[in-house]
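re: that complex we talked abt at group meeting.

here r the seqs, copy pasted straight from the sheet so there may be weird spacing, ignore it
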Amino acid sequence: MRDRDDEWTGLMRAAISGDDGSYHRLLKLITPALRAAARKGLARAGQPGDQSEDIVQDILLAVHLKRHTWNPTAPFAPWLFAIARNKLIDTLRRRGRRIFVDIDDFAETIASEPPAEVVPAGEVALHLETLPARQREVLQLIAVDNTSIKDTAQKLAMSEGAVRVALHRGLSKLTANLRGS
Amino acid sequence: MKMETEQLIRILAADNPRRSLSVGQVLSMALAAALPISLALFLSTLGVRPDVMLAMHNPFFDLKFVVTLSLMISAIAVGLHLSRPDAALGGWVGLLFVPIGILAIGIGWEMMLPQRLPMIVRLVGSNSKTCLLAITLLSLPLLAAALLALRHGATARPVVSGAFAGLLSAGLAATLYASHCPDDSPLFVATWYTLATLLVTAIGALTGARVLRF
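got the structure back, here u go
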């Protein structure tokens, strides 16, 4: 657990100092822990676990857009699980269910949790459709076709800067739409 | 079309170079933008009291600014702290004892001096209604700005964060108002400034509950 936390913290520090590869690795590493926590939280609230992947994606978006609120001198895991807990409570509230989230669900997620099968989520994708065409195209090229920023720029006849802006705006908008639903 | 989490991660990783401003930077910019609105509102309606040059020699006039500014600074510190999702409230709320303590010392100090007016007259003052109304109204543009800025953060306690947005905007609005206010007694400040501040804090808490969830 301690090793895991140290690894996450190290990767996040590297990510902030500009290492995109570390960031990608970190997000992949935390996803199973978030998935396990989301399932546990849903089960505890008496909710079916089939929408846990929506919550995982919701948490990942929040981690990304709020990462400036992480203090790089502090460990990463408590911050991550605070975000996760908040998102789970938020989801349950929006569904109008009684809220009963035990913080231990997040604090004690065991690293050796068996990897859950990946359920493709619908919510994020659904909102993708509502984005302006440019933003949607950029997001889809990067997400679905695994295109680099550079190639995306070439394909869409945009500058790399414009691709980055569209990417970020699309993400922010996606989050805003998710919140509104 | 369904999006796999793997794909979402790819998008997020591609957006890694994007850097956001800190919540503190956004809050400073928001307050700098809203302050001229409150200031214009203040100068066009109430304005600085005419005997201000003389009043500045009265330590109790000056004390009002120490109290209101220390309230603002403490509230900003706690508000920014709470904008981190993993922040513990802990001893931070104790910062509020700075303005409260300064005000208490001021009251004790005034008690020890011979006074022309009885205590109750100093407490009731001459313009308590204006005080309540002015501090509350002058706070609103600042409160809106503070709440917008705190939305850039990720608080796990929207109500408490909203309350601190209220406290900081009331502190700043009271600083403006203090330069008009003809009542300098710390007893007056402790009564009416506090009442107005609590009102703004309540508005902040209620609004925060709605707008500061992330």
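couple things i noticed - Chain B touches chain A through 32 residues (CB under 8 Å). Chain B has nine helices and no strands.
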